[in-house]
Amino acid sequence: MEFQLTESTARIMERRDFLKISGTGLLGAAAMSVAGCSNNSGQAGQAVESLGKVVRNYPQAGLLGFGAMRWPMIKDADGTDIIDQEKVNEMVDLALEHGVNYFDTAPVYLQGKSEAATGTALHRHPRDSYMVATKLSNFSGPWTFQAGVDMYRRSFENLQTDYIDFYLLHSLSGRESFRKRFLDNGLIDFLLAERQAGRIRHLGFSFHGSREGFDEMMEMHAQYHWDFVQIQMNYSDWYSTDGEESEYMYTRLDELEIPVVIMEPLLGGRLANIPAPLEDMLKAVEPEASAASWAFRFCGSHPRIFCVLSGMTYKEHLEDNLRTFCNFTPLEESDYTLLQTVAAGLGDYHLIDCTDCKYCMPCPYGIDIPGLFQFFNRHITQGTYVASSAQKDYDRMRRKYLTDYDKTVQTVRQADHCCRCFQCLSKCPQKIQIPDELRRIDTYVEDLKQGKI
After folding, report:
1. CA–CA dist 320, 186 (Å, integer)
2. Is 192 helix (H, G, I), strand (E, B) or coil?
């Protein structure tokens, strides 16, 4: 079957070629710097020590940014989950060594512990060797001026700094969310004054909403002069039936020459662990390249991208990403076509669109919502999902699935405990119908227990 390049991708490739020569963003020239890097993307066997620096679309930052939402965790003496600061320090050191100098955190990440861990790791290095991004995460109120200012000032304390390079209004969806969280209480005027004073070097926002809401935020650009904008973008969203949203947002920002920071390039890790038949399609073209490297190259090949965030939990994640971004090769026309085919294939697996951001947590009834969704998706992508009693080794697969379910998710935190209070719905940036998906999982597990599948 022959696939044609979409018009939208062709336009982006044309803009990419033009902007590499002439484009100038608000933060500098959008020219790809490849000093010290070769063009053999994703070489799994290449020693990290032999790599140079990550490539740059903009002079200020490496194209790979370090997301601090998923720092490694360990248990303390009381059995409480805490951040493994030693591992965080090790990864930060390795990242900086290879030119990864943009670190993104937030007051709400890792139950409020991410900022302090990030600050501890970064403070060991010269302040001009890194850039830190954090956010005003006043999602649920109180939406008072003082509450917002207090959160803002705590970020300085946690990060051990006297200025923040990139400050974001966190998770906006349009004019209404901006009005109640930042306009009516005067916080936006305070933040503009902080930018004027230099304590905020660049002011922007992260967006989770519709095209109409995004247009509303863009209408404010003339008044507030957004220095950058953070959006969700990945090849699965881009080529899905509703993917025009990410394409539309990127195109608008490109036209306005506003640098773009990308979140969820792997869709919460799902594009790093795609079903085997789809991964085989990528391996046929680049046998040594990881599935994750393809997703990162898709984002990094767009010239208006300031940096692509990756929430790296383990050193192995960082090393694989360094191989991709130090040996960065922009996608070619055939690569875009291949990813469009893979994205279409992903749609056939009916995965839950969870990115494991944990904004829905804690559940008031103790349900491990992201854990359940990750478990469900993982068994589908790994081919261990029990679909029919006609499957080969049905009895063994059925027993193993149910055993893994009980081992992975505590009984008191499983899907059958959802009482449909709907408190999670407004918190999910992916707009997942969480109670319905939990019911789907519970029904599936019960049918499996009773042998109905």
Report:
1. 44
2. helix
| Residue keyed to tokens 């191989």 | 323
C-alpha–C-alpha distance, residues 123 and 117, integer Å:
10
**What single-letter DSSP state applies at residue 228?**
E
Phi-psi region for residue 200, left (φ > 0), alpha (ψ -120 to 50) or beta?
beta
| 223 CB-contact burial (10 Å; exposed 0-12 / middle 13-18 / buried 19+) | exposed
CA dist., res. 1 & res. 152, Å (int): 54
Angle, to 10 degrees, between the axis of helix 333-346 and the axis of helix 291-300?
120
Q: What is the average per-residue pLDDT within 338-362?
A: 85
Task: Please give the backbone phi and psi of residue 338, each rounded to the nearest 5 degrees, phi first.
Answer: -65, -45
Q: CB of 244 within 8 A of CB of 219? A: no
283 exposed, middle or buried (CB, 10 Å; 0-12, 13-18, 19+)?
Answer: middle
CA distance 130 to 96: 8
What is the value of pTM for the model shown? 0.81
Give the chain's mean pLDDT.
87
Beta bridge partners of 305: 260
DSSP string covering 116-150: HHHHHHHTTS-GGG-EEEEEE--SSS---HHHHHH
Q: Element (H or E) spanning 208, and its range?
A: none
Q: Average of pLDDT values for 84-113?
A: 96
φ, ψ dihedrals at 241, nearest 5°: -65, -30
Length reported for the chain? 453
CA 29 to CA 23: how far, in whole Å? 6
Q: Helix 276-285 crosses helix 291-300 at what angle (to 10 degrees)?
A: 70
Instruction: Please count the other Cβ atoms lying within 10 Å of the Cβ belonging to residue 78.
Output: 6
- Report angle CA 203, 208, 214 to the nearest 5 degrees: 70
Q: How confident is the model at residue 35 (pLDDT cuts 50, 70, 90)?
A: very low
> ω before 275 within 30° of 0 (cis)?
no
Q: Per the structure block, which two tokens stand in for 251?
A: 């195109």
Q: How far apart are CA 91 and CA 73, in angstroms?
A: 13
What proportion of the chain, given as a percentage, has pLDDT over 90? Answer: 59
Exposed (0-12), middle (13-18) or buried (19+): which is 404, by Cβ within 10 Å? middle
Asked if residue 397 lies in contact with residue 382, where contact means CB atoms within 8 angstroms, the answer is: no
Beta bridge partners of 200: 164
The confidence band for 423, taking pLDDT boundaries of 50, 70 and 90, is confident
Q: How many CB atoms lie within 10 A of CB 186?
A: 13
Q: How far is CA 153 from the centre of its chain?
A: 25
Give the separation between CA 315 and CA 87, rounded to whole angstroms: 8
**C-alpha–C-alpha distance, residues 357 and 299, integer Å:** 20
Q: Give the whole-angstrom CA distance, residue 273 versus residue 98.
A: 25
